[in-house]
């Protein structure tokens, strides 16, 4: 007859270690879940001080008729949403400012991404040495401050001493110098050159990083099957680099929507020629030029809302790419 031995009672040390292990298991998930927020806490605190609080102040000013008198007296002159109503019903917003802002951003993003992609394709075909040399040269344009680049392009197209007018006169294409900054179309053409020159290196280097990961065997097989360069790009390269293109397009859109220095520092761009105003410059001119800080703050809030909407699209696109 077999006998079953009853389990021995756990000792005090074993029960204590088991309870500690159980406590660790219970506390572990909560600590792991809170760890990312603990790591982000210093950065979020700095952002709250440097960005969130000023943004709240701008929103408060946008609800007031805030000018020099209010600055001197410290009084509040609340008018509710009147500044927003005035901005949204102002013909300048719909006939000048918004078309300049949206139209320029659309063209600038397209040209910047196109030029950057072409440069990236060129860099991918170069050897390692020349690739490093050319990449270093184009990064100089990206490292150049926007103010410096704007003054360089202003000098090139200057009516009296500009290189562009001098070349056209030497070629016999015109007799008298032309002020290219007075016309809305030529003004934004110069701004476009400035923005594309400053922004295409980022696109080129980013797309190049993706191109180096494209399967060479697949491209060689497509070439053997008779596919040309254009067809290989749209059928193989573009689908593979679609996440990269979505990132550079959305980031370029955010940057080109809030272009300020490249417009404001051009002759007439600081409010002298109101036909070239965009949303950012209009907000600055109304605030510091007309001393209408409340109305300028309302314009800044509208621009911020547009940029937040674009940022939400950017984040959602990244989340969708992570799910795939």
The count of helical stretches stands at 14
Helix % is over 70%
DSSP strand content: under 5%
Mean pLDDT: 83
Major sheet details: none
Cα-atom radius of gyration: 29 Å
Order of helices and strands: HHHHHHHHHHHHHH
Q: Give the overall form.
A: globular
**Terminus-to-terminus distance:** 63 Å
Query: Which structural class should the secondary elements be placed in?
Result: mainly alpha
How many individual β-strands?
0
Q: Spans with pLDDT under 50 lasting ≥5 residues?
A: 15-25
Concise synopsis of the structure shown:
The protein is mainly α and 324 residues long.
Task: Please specify the SSE layout and strand pairing.
Layout: H1 12-62, H2 68-73, H3 82-89, H4 91-125, H5 128-143, H6 146-156, H7 163-170, H8 184-211, H9 216-224, H10 229-240, H11 242-257, H12 261-264, H13 279-289, H14 293-323
Helix pairs in contact: 1-14, 3-14, 4-8, 4-11, 5-8, 6-8, 8-11, 11-14, 13-14
What does it look like?
The chain is an all-alpha fold and 324 residues long. 76% of the residues lie in helices and 0% in strands. It has 14 helices and no strands. The protein has helices at residues 12-62, 68-73, 82-89, 91-125, 128-143, 146-156, 163-170, 184-211, 216-224, 229-240, 242-257, 261-264, 279-289, 293-323. The protein is globular. The N and C termini lie far apart (63 Å).
Kindly list the characteristics that best describe this protein.
14 helices; single chain; 324 residues; mainly alpha
């Amino acid at each position: 007859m077999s006998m079953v031995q009853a389990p021995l009672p756990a000792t005090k040390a074993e029960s204590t270690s088991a309870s500690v292990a159980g406590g660790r298991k219970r506390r572990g998930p909560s600590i792991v879940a809170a760890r990312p927020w603990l790591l982000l806490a210093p950065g979020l605190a700095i952002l709250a001080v440097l960005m969130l609080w000023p943004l709240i102040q701008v929103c408060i000013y946008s609800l007031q008729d805030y000018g020099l008198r209010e600055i001197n007296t410290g009084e509040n002159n609340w008018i509710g949403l009147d500044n927003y109503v005035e901005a949204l019903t102002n013909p300048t917003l719909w006939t000048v400012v918004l078309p300049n802002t949206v139209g320029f951003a659309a063209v600038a993003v397209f040209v910047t991404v196109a030029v950057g992609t072409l440069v990236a394709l060129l860099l991918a075909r170069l050897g390692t040495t020349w690739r490093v040399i050319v990449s270093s040269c184009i990064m100089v344009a990206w490292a150049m401050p926007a103010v410096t680049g704007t003054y360089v392009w202003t000098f090139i197209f200057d009516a009296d001493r500009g290189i562009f007018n001098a070349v056209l006169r030497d070629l016999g294409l015109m007799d008298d110098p032309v002020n290219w900054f007075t016309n809305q179309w030529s003004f934004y053409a110069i701004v476009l050159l400035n923005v594309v020159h400053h922004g295409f290196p980022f696109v080129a280097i980013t797309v190049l990083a993706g191109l180096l990961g494209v399967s060479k065997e697949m491209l060689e097989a497509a070439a053997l099957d008779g596919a040309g360069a254009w067809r290989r790009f749209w059928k193989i390269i573009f689908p593979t680099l679609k996440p990269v293109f979505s990132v550079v397009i959305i980031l370029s859109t955010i940057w080109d929507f809030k272009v300020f220095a490249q417009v404001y520092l051009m002759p007439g761009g600081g409010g002298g020629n109101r036909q070239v105003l965009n949303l950012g410059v209009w907000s600055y001119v109304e605030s510091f030029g007309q001393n209408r800080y409340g109305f300028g703050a309302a314009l800044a809030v509208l621009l911020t809302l547009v940029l937040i909407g674009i940022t939400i699209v950017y984040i959602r696109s990244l989340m969708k790419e992570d799910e795939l």
